[in-house]
């Protein structure tokens, strides 16, 4: 059983959670996503489909942590926009697959590049010592993300 957190530990953890959320929200909108009329959900779904290549809708719903109705709407709009293709599963008529189109891959790459450029610019504006602290924490933050992804939740 993990040790009981003190009030200071809980406040520090809450600060970390809040700053991760702010970073995520501030990196989410990009000129490419806004120009394409993508909502944050559709952007996230598109990026996941591009990353996976071809994915079943049930697996995509689980990885995105969205309900099937919301995912269905997002996929329908992405199909209409020509960013993903949807196909029926030949072995299970209830299941469906999605894969990115060339246009979807190009847009996803632009979104990723814009997010990376924005973060890089912000990092460059920090004091060198602050930048070093952030870079030194990357391995630990990646481990933290992995633990949360594999179920280290109450």
CATH class: Mainly Alpha
Q: Percent range for helical residues?
A: 55-70%
User: From the 3D coordinates, which CATH architecture would you assign?
Assistant: Orthogonal Bundle
Structural class label: mainly alpha
Low-confidence stretches: none
Query: Mean pLDDT, rounded to whole units?
Result: 90
Beta-strand percentage? 5-15%
Separate helix tally: 8
Net shape? globular
Instruction: List SSEs in N-to-C order.
Output: HHHEHHEEHHH
Distance between the termini: 12 Å
CATH names the topology as: Arc Repressor Mutant, subunit A
Give the secondary structure arrangement, pairings included.
Layout lengths: L6 H21 L3 H5 L4 H13 L2 E2 H8 L3 H13 L3 E5 L7 E5 L1 H23 L3 H9 L1 H12 L5
Antiparallel strand pairs: 1-3, 2-3
Report on this model:
The chain starts with 6 loop residues before the first helix and ends in a 5-residue tail after the last helix. The chain has eight helices and three strands; from the N terminus they run αααβααββααα. The radius of gyration is 19 Å and the shape is globular. Helix 3 crosses helix 5. The longest helix has 23 residues, at 102-124. It has a single domain, classed as Arc Repressor Mutant, subunit A (Orthogonal Bundle), CATH 1.10.10. Strand 2 and strand 3 (96-100) form a beta hairpin. 68% of the residues lie in helices and 8% in strands. The protein has a three-stranded antiparallel β-sheet with strand order 1-3-2. The protein has helices at residues 7-27, 31-35, 40-52, 57-64, 68-80, 102-124, 128-136, 138-149, and strands at residues 55-56, 84-88, 96-100. The protein is mainly α and 154 residues long.
């Amino acid at each position: 059983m993990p040790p009981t957190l003190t009030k200071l530990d809980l406040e520090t953890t809450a600060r970390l959670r809040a700053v991760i959320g702010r970073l995520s929200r501030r990196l989410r909108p990009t000129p490419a996503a806004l120009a394409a009329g993508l909502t944050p959900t559709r952007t996230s779904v598109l990026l996941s489909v591009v990353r996976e290549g071809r994915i079943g809708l049930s697996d995509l719903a689980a990885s995105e942590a969205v309900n099937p109705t919301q995912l269905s709407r997002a996929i329908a709009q992405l199909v209409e926009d020509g960013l993903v293709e949807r196909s029926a599963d030949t072995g299970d008529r209830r299941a469906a697959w999605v894969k990115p189109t060339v246009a979807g891959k190009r847009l996803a790459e632009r979104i990723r590049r814009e997010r990376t450029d924005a973060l890089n610019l912000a990092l460059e504006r920090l004091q060198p010592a602050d930048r070093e602290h952030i870079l030194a924490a990357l391995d630990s933050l990646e481990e933290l993300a992995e633990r949360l992804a594999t179920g280290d939740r109450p």
